[in-house]
Specification:
By secondary structure, the protein is mostly helical. 65% of the residues lie in helices and 2% in strands.
Length: 255
């Protein structure tokens, strides 16, 4: 499952790297601005910034689904005329409260809290995408859907950092070679810049992918199909004709 999600996340990132980066930067600036605006009152900061943070998660979700993404989606929750904004704030405060309570358990509390945070990982998506679910029940539904997948979600978060760390270590050692070491130094610099610019975007898409794929656990990503005479590309998720030899979006061989 991790491999499929990585492939699709990379395919989305390769299609719209500049737009995703720009919207991600705008989202970070918006959250920072709202945090400063709230001053020294934490609860006000949470109320103001939570919808903006989840707005950025929704941008990643739209991108993973192959939908158009734009900066106004960062304000999507603020602009809704229903009680979505209230649901999001209450649901996220409820989630954070329970993670905090689990963390208070002596000795093993921190480990349990980390596990619980992954079990509740789908909560923000459920709060926005599934309005029929009560705000305080979103963590329960998230826990049900992530059952058996917590390890995969944890691994999906940390494997990129491990891979990047190994690459940077190797390049750092090669950069010490006389005469040609500067070439590896340049490559190392490029890797550092790329990680700084795109790692958060990639992990954002991965997080959205788990919600999308676990929303219907009876049809994992590798087995989903569009029905009829259509199928889904296993790499980028594009819907194509069953008799298509290569995906028109990413070029993956299908038949």
């Amino acid at each position: 499952m991790i491999k499929t999600i990585y492939q699709r996340a990379i395919a989305v990132l390769m299609k719209k790297p500049i737009r995703l980066w720009a919207i991600g930067l705008l989202g970070a600036v918006l959250v920072g601005f709202l945090t400063l605006l709230s001053g020294l009152v934490p609860i006000i900061g949470i109320i103001l910034t939570t919808p903006a943070e989840i707005g950025l998660l929704l941008v990643y979700l739209h991108g993973y689904r192959g939908e158009e993404i734009y900066s106004n989606q960062l304000l999507e929750i603020y602009e809704k005329k229903d009680d979505t904004w209230k649901r999001v704030v209450i649901g996220m405060l409820w989630k954070d409260l329970w993670v905090f309570i689990w963390a208070l358990i002596p000795i093993a509390g921190i480990v349990i809290a980390i596990i619980k945070s992954y079990q509740y990982r789908l909560t923000p998506y459920i709060l926005v995408q599934e309005p029929e679910v009560k705000a305080t029940d979103a963590i329960k539904l998230s826990k049900e859907r992530t059952k058996g997948y917590v390890g995969a979600m944890f691994g999906a978060d940390f494997l990129p950092y491990i891979a990047v760390g190994v690459v940077m270590l190797v390049l750092g050692l090669l950069a010490r070679i006389k005469f040609i070491g500067w070439l590896f130094g340049i490559v190392l610099f490029v890797v550092v810049v790329a990680v700084a610019l795109f790692m958060r975007l990639f992990l954002g898409l991965v997080g959205a992918a788990f919600y999308e794929e676990l929303m219907n656990p009876t049809k994992p990503a590798e087995q989903q199909s569009a029905g009829g005479e259509k199928t889904v590309c296993p790499t980028c998720g594009a819907v194509v004709d069953k008799d298509t030899a290569f995906c028109p979006s990413c070029g993956t061989k299908l038949n």
